TrEMBL record:
<dbReference type="InterPro" id="IPR009057">
    <property type="entry name" value="Homeodomain-like_sf"/>
</dbReference>
<protein>
    <submittedName>
        <fullName>TetR/AcrR family transcriptional regulator</fullName>
    </submittedName>
</protein>
<keyword id="KW-0238">DNA-binding</keyword>
<keyword id="KW-0804">Transcription</keyword>
<feature type="region of interest" description="Disordered">
    <location>
        <begin position="1"/>
        <end position="21"/>
    </location>
</feature>
<dbReference type="InterPro" id="IPR001647">
    <property type="entry name" value="HTH_TetR"/>
</dbReference>
<dbReference type="InterPro" id="IPR050109">
    <property type="entry name" value="HTH-type_TetR-like_transc_reg"/>
</dbReference>
<dbReference type="Pfam" id="PF00440">
    <property type="entry name" value="TetR_N"/>
</dbReference>
<keyword id="KW-0805">Transcription regulation</keyword>
<feature type="domain" description="HTH tetR-type">
    <location>
        <begin position="21"/>
        <end position="81"/>
    </location>
</feature>
<feature type="DNA-binding region" description="H-T-H motif">
    <location>
        <begin position="44"/>
        <end position="63"/>
    </location>
</feature>
Amino acid sequence: MPDHVNPRRNYRSPAREQQARHTRTAIIAAAHQLFLSRGFAATTMNSVATESGVAVQTVYKAFPNKAVLAKAVFDNAIAGDDESVPVVERDQLTKVRTEPDPQRKLRLYGAFLARTAPRHVPVQLVIRAAAATHPEAAQLWTQLQDERLAGMAYFAADLDRAGHLRTGITRSEARDVLWTYNAAEQYELLVLERGWSSRRYGSWIAEALIAALL
């Protein structure tokens, strides 16, 4: 290449990136509201575009289909924002992961569930309801359950390595117990149907896990 020819450079515009992030956040917020008010089937990409004030092509550019958009809505709900930092690396779960006392660890986890479940469980229930009749929702529901099971397997292994599990409780059993207690259905039954507060729900989950595992 001649010396006077500059190699092509990747052009990054902070203003453009900020605008793209703002647009993505607006799309997710609009989809969240529509999923909860209309359900999965009745929420179209066109309606999300209208609600968020962008062209439908912009929605498809960020999210190629409704299932991908719904997953983004769920991820945003559980994290509380659309930042790229994984939930497991956020401050709340870092405190759970690094807490040496097993009872306090599970109580911190219960408090985490109490704070986050009101945001993400309603989204999960929308996806679960649609899964019976919509293949893309069914596939997404399965993905959410698989991801949750993987997370609980990691949690159970952490408890086991530290010697916190009661004698006779295997990693796989601990994983399944954790997976059962942190399911959306627990929040649905206790908070949405029986009227418990989120705080009472989180405290009950923690004490139930302590009794079942430690």
